[in-house]
Amino acid sequence: MTDSRDRLFERPGSVGDFVFDAAVAKVFPDMISRSVPGYAAILNMVELLTGLHAQANTRLYDLGCSLGAASIAMARGLHQQGCRIIAVDNAPAMLEKAREHSAHLGGGAIEFQLADLREVDIANASMVVLNFTLQFLPLAQRAGLLQRIRDGLRPGGVLILSEKIAGANPDEDAALVAMHHAFKRQQGYSDLEISQKRAALEKVLLPETLETHLQRLAKTGFQQAHPWFQCFNFVSIVARA
Ligand code: GEK
C-alpha cells in the first residue's frame, strides 16, 4: 500500500472544485482522519453497531464507500450468518484502492460495485451505511435516496447516516466551523490549506442542519432517528426502519 500524507491544498492557487480522483485516493486515509473529528471512533462504532443490528441472511450496504473503511468495520463486527456486504462508489480510483485495503479479508468478504449509488438496487437490507456521502448529493435528490433505503430495509433494519452539518443559526454555525478549523490546525493543516479546501468543497459538499436530517428521516417513514455521535459539525445518526 502506498498511501501518503495529504498535501493537496498546500500550494497557493489549488482552487478547482473537489473531485474524488487518483490524487485524492492516494492520500484519502490521511485526509479524512485529519479532517473529520471522530472518524476513527465512528468506524469503531460501525463495527459494534453491525454486531448489534445485522440480521442473518440479509445484505449490508456501504454507499459511497471510498476506500472501504466502513465495509471493513462491518466485516469485523459481523457474526451473523449468510450476510453479504455490498460496497458502492462511483469513483474508479477510490474503488481500486478499496480493493487493495480490504485484500487482507480474503476475496468475496466485501462485494465492490463501481456504480452511482442512486442507481443501486437496495433490497433485503438489515444495515445501510452512508458515512459522509449524502452530503455530496444534490439537495433535491436526498429524500428519494432515503426513501429507497427505507423501502429496502427489513423491519428493525438500520441506516447509519454520518454527515457534516450546518449550525441551526449563523452564530451556531460560526462556532462549529471555528472549532472544526481549530481541529484541522491541530492536525497540522495550515490556514492556506484550510481555506483552499473549504473553497474546493463549497459547491460539492452541501451541509444541512441536524433538524433537517431528522425531519426528512421521519417523513421518509423511519420509526426512530437520533444522533448517537457528534463532534463539532460532524454528526452520526442511527435511523431504524
Ligand atoms: C468512509 N464512506 O471512509 N455514487 C456513488 N458514490 C458517490 C456518489 C454517488 N452518486 N457521490 C459521492 N460518492 C467513506 C467516506 S467520502 C466522504 C465517504 C468525504 C462517493 C465519492 O466518490 C467518495 O468516495 C464518497 O462518496 C464520499 O467511511 O470525502 O468527505
Describe this structure in words.
There is one protein chain. This protein has helices at residues 22-35, 39-53, 69-77, 92-101, 142-152, 170-186, 191-201, 210-219, and strands at 59-63, 84-89, 110-114, 125-131, 153-166, 208-209, 224-231, 234-240. The chain is of the alpha/beta class. The chain has a domain at 39-166 and 204-240: Vaccinia Virus protein VP39 (Rossmann fold, 3-Layer(aba) Sandwich). Helix 5 links the parallel strand 4 (125-131) and strand 5 (153-166). The mean pLDDT is 93.
Order of helices and strands: HHEHEHEEHEHHEHEE
Taken from the alpha-carbon principal axes, the silhouette is: globular
Percentage of residues assigned to helices: 40-55%
- Cofactors, ions, other ligands: ligand GEK
Mean pLDDT: 93
E-strand count:
8
Q: How much strand content do the residues show? A: 15-25%
Q: CATH fold name of the domain at 39-166 and 204-240, please? A: Rossmann fold
CATH class call of the domain at 39-166 and 204-240: Alpha Beta
CATH H-tier superfamily of the domain at 39-166 and 204-240: Vaccinia Virus protein VP39
